Queue: 2 jobs
Job 1
Amino acid sequence: MRIRHLRGVRISNVFLVDGGPGDRFLVDTGHWSERATLVLALRRAGLWPSDLTGVLLTHRHSDHAGNARWLRERFGVRVYAHRADAEILEGREPVPHMERGEGSFLAGVLAQFENRWPARVPVDRALDDGDTIGSLEVHWVPGHTEGSVFFRHDRTRSLLSGDTLLTAIPPLVVRAGLALPYPTFTRDMKLARASIRAFHERAIDYDALLPGHGAPLMKDARKVFGEFLDKQGILDT
């Protein structure tokens, strides 16, 4: 079993959780504009999209779910997302409108792109908190989106955190640094902070953090982020 960062896909991180045939999952799919890059990255890993068991979405935003529909329609790859995001991805609930708010001008521009071209895809299985899929545990951390999740892989002591915990500074995410979800792109910042706190207080162990943006943090990630969250006031009693 290994988890591979598919390098070359730049707008958001895509990870391959590979336990062999029947247990190969992409965690997120990147933006639709990087479709060819995604396929090339898979080929470098020795796989074709049809070799995948499924796609696991950390959340519904188009930079993470943008290729899910194409993979499903073209190659029959099953799609998994939390129930709350699945309702929006499938069009059963309206896509919430992003507002710039306190964010930068650039964040406002990016928000308009998301408003205009949200990801849409049928979800083959709606996930709930506490589920397992393949070798991954599902931990619901709503706030960034209604159905944001962490995927935890026990064997490698890894936490795949989507955009709920980052190692690059939004909105451009080109500068390294620990970060929380960016307000412009976050449905409910207060809820996101509460979800992060609740997860941390459960003392769930992980050593590596594999974020939606930024470089993977491969050692002492829970300790490092615990100190960061304390400085952010999230762990205050």
Job 2
Amino acid sequence: MNASCYAAQKLTKKNVKAAASDGFSINAVLTYPKNNTQKEFKTVILLHSLGYDSGWWGDLPQELLAKNYAILTIDLRGHGKSVYDSSLDRVSWKNMKNAAYEKYPEDVLAVINKVKEENPKRIFFNNWAVVGSDIGASTAVIASDKMKIRPKTIVMLSPVVKTKGLYIPVCLAHLDNVDILAVSGTDDTISKDASNYLSKFAQANFVGYTSDSQTTGMLMLKNDTRLSKIIAEWISQYLN
């Protein structure tokens, strides 16, 4: 889907602001095809890399919206627009301790609950998937384990076993019917090793994929022009 087609597509876009359990403000954007009669949407949550924000997803949002999915892009704590604590002091990810990063999964759940609260006549998370990159991938696994209705699939870009206190093998082992796509860059031996290790804990299909890009995380989407379409096609096998 090229930029002009994306611009012409009729979309509803809503800013979402959720208060985390400690009062930190978590910001997100919910975007979905404009349809006054549609009540339930297949939804994809996008959780970005450490040090980035929700504006770095390249063509992936367009590919997903072209399939008539809703997308929820979340700025994780300390990133993008999610940088203010309960005292309205500005907080950067660069200065956060592991205890703050460990709140990421609960932050995501707070946003999901806020979407449900603000859209009582629409359903977004009965048929859903999640894409996460490095720390976003770890957050996706742990948050999914806490959800009553699990995602149909999880896509992990540059997965890690443990980062900033987020350890995922045990949670991954709880996701009985959730297939995983793990994407690593051509030269990213760390993520490939992590994928091999994590595959031992997966209870469903765990597929490793090597991108043509030599970079890692979200940068693969910019350097590998096929990757966004590959991810969207993978997800479409589950949100059908």
